[in-house]
């Protein structure tokens, strides 16, 4: 046990792989283990929402996702044969990657794995964590290899991204607080022929027994989800569904003339709504399903884990590189991400119970409320942004508090996602876009006249950690770019590596910038950086 890896990641699912890729972008050595001897071949989570796609694009996998996935254009709602509403997912999402994508989780993992291997990474499979111990500067994991050998592996930091039954969470004895729904749900991946279905839309039909939902993720291949009720629930319990059982559900409650065939994955599940009591214990963190699980309604579980990884990744990298105040950075992970998970759990539960509405009057009220979506663009916008997770904010987080500014509800302000910008560079006439410029560094965007150069001068000594993007008056003559960030005149915005706005100010608001650089970006003279 002479070698101590900077970060040991337990779990090679989307969360663990996103974290591994993020750390590799900083040159941080990581060790990734997974108890499964082979990659999972199940479709599992399907939706990748715009907020996650923005983060994944910065890791160099955007093209692979676009090629492998079905672009989602809409979600349609119906009650029996009646169409209630259609919510467009193609328009109105303010994102650099506005179209959500649908693809099997196994394909998502394969894309991330290929990129990790391309960057020199290795996934150790058939390795199970059986225990943890910790000292002031080291966490030691007891690992059981596939051949039965026991290894004591040392790391500076350990992250449990090992799913809902997390061995890391159990080893830390962290409570997984919440409930399990009593109902059994059916899941099947099948081909569907004969029905008139938009193959770029999710289709949801409500009925007196719950919901039938269809999710496209390949040519004529659909995920069917429904609830087992009545006699079937009493007699079959958690038995996997048959193709015939799914066919009966779709025939009775779904699109006319649909014929199901070629079943792939057939399974049942029960819905858990649980949240870890804490995300950190000393040098050990929880992320993804190890920290939070909920109803699949809304399809946000995997996405929330990907965003956990992006949030934690840059902070761990900074600490390992000897930057900033370790406590400030690492404590902010739980402070920012746990409230997000709480909100996702609550929203998913609401969506689930809307579909279940057991009483006829409740169903009438639900259908009436949903049917107005077609006529109320503001409600459609709210649903879109909630599902896309583009409205997540960290207003109450400690890093936002460093800016000293009050919480502000608008996009373009600290604690919200960065906004993309488009402009024509006056010096060469070339079209520019902000999003492709964002990388593992902080980004200072300056909307400037002569006075705004003060912010540029302050970040100049930190060029390895902060890049500057300047829009002169000639680049933005109409002022569209600066108004998008809420400025009428000069100003600047500092964007974190996870694409969240850290600070904003005018030419005179540089004290806050200096404080943030000191507490978050500045090298600690006594630190010993650890990298690959």
Structure commentary:
This protein has 532 residues and is an alpha+beta fold. The chain has three domains: 4-46 and 104-179 and 272-356, FAD/NAD(P)-binding domain, CATH 3.50.50; 184-269, Alpha-Beta Plaits; 398-521, Glutaredoxin, CATH 3.40.30.120. Helix content is 31%, strand content 27%. The chain is built from 15 helices and 28 strands. Helix 1 packs parallel to helix 8 (301-320).
Question: Would you spell out the secondary-structure blueprint of this structure?
Answer:
Blueprint: E1 4-10, H1 14-25, E2 30-34, E3 47-48, H2 50-57, H3 62-68, E4 70-71, E5 74-79, E6 82-88, E7 101-102, H4 105-118, E8 123-125, E9 128-134, E10 139-144, E11 150-160, H5 167-172, E12 176-180, E13 184-193, E14 201-207, E15 210-218, E16 221-228, H6 230-236, H7 243-253, E17 259-261, E18 266-269, E19 272-276, E20 280-281, E21 284-286, E22 292-293, H8 301-320, H9 326-356, H10 360-371, H11 377-388, H12 398-401, E23 422-424, E24 431-433, E25 442-448, H13 453-459, E26 466-472, H14 480-484, E27 491-495, E28 501-505, H15 511-521
Parallel strand pairs: 1-2, 1-11, 2-8, 5-14, 11-21, 25-26
Antiparallel strand pairs: 3-7, 4-7, 5-6, 9-10, 10-11, 12-19, 13-16, 13-17, 13-18, 14-15, 15-16, 19-22, 20-21, 23-24, 25-27, 27-28
Helix pairs in contact: 1-4, 1-8, 2-8, 8-9
């Amino acid at each position: 046990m002479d070698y101590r890896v900077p970060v040991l990641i337990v779990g090679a699912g989307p969360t663990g792989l996103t974290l591994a890729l993020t750390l590799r972008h900083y040159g941080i050595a990581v060790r990734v283990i997974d108890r499964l001897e082979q990659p999972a071949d199940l479709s599992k989570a399907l939706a990748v929402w715009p907020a996650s796609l923005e983060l994944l694009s910065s890791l160099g996998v955007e093209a692979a996702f676009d090629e492998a996935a079905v672009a989602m254009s809409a979600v349609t709602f119906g009650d029996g044969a009646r169409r209630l509403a259609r919510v467009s997912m193609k328009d109105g999402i303010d994102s650099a990657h506005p179209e959500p994508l649908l693809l099997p989780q196994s394909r998502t993992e394969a894309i991330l794995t290929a990129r990790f291997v391309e960057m020199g990474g290795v996934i150790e499979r058939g390795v199970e964590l059986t225990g943890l111990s910790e000292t002031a500067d080291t966490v030691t994991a007891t690992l059981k290899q596939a051949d039965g050998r026991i290894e004591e592996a040392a790391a500076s930091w350990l992250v449990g991204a090992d799913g809902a039954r997390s061995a890391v969470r159990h080893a830390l004895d962290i409570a997984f607080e919440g409930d399990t729904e009593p109902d059994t749900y059916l899941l099947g991946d099948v081909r569907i022929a004969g029905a008139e279905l938009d193959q770029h839309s999710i289709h949801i039909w409500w009925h007196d027994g719950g919901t039938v939902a269809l999710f496209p993720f390949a040519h004529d291949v659909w995920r069917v989800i429904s609830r087992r009720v009545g006699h079937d629930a009493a007699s079959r319990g958690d038995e996997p569904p048959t193709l015939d059982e799914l066919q009966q559900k779709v025939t009775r409650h779904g699109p006319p003339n649909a014929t199901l065939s070629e079943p792939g994955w057939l399974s049942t599940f029960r819905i858990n709504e649980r949240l870890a009591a804490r995300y950190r214990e000393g040098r050990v963190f929880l992320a993804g399903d190890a920290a939070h699980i909920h109803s699949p309604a809304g399809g946000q579980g995997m996405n929330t884990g990907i965003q956990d990884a992006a949030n934690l990744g840059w902070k761990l990298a900074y600490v390992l590189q000897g930057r900033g105040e370790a406590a400030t950075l690492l404590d902010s992970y739980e402070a920012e991400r746990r409230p997000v998970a709480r909100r996702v759990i609550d929203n998913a539960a609401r969506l689930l119970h809307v579909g279940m509405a057991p009483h006829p009057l409740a169903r009438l009220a639900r259908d009436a409320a949903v049917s107005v979506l077609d006529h109320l663009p503001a409600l459609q916008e709210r649903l879109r942004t909630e599902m896309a997770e583009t409205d997540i904010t960290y207003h109450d987080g400690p890093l936002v508090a460093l800016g000293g500014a009050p919480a502000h509800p608008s996009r373009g302000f600290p604690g919200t996602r960065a906004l993309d910008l488009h402009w024509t560079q006056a010096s060469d006439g070339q079209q520019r876009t902000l999003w492709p410029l964002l990388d593992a560094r902080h980004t200072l965007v300056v909307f400037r006249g002569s006075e705004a150069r003060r912010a540029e001068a302050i970040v100049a000594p930190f060029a390895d950690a902060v890049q500057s993007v300047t829009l002169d008056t000639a680049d933005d003559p109409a002022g569209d770019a600066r108004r998008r960030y809420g400025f009428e005149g000069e100003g600047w915005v500092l964007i974190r590596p996870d694409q969240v706005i850290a600070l904003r100010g005018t030419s005179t608001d540089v004290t806050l910038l200096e404080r943030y650089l000191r507490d978050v970006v500045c090298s600690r003279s006594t630190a010993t950086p650890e990298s690959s």
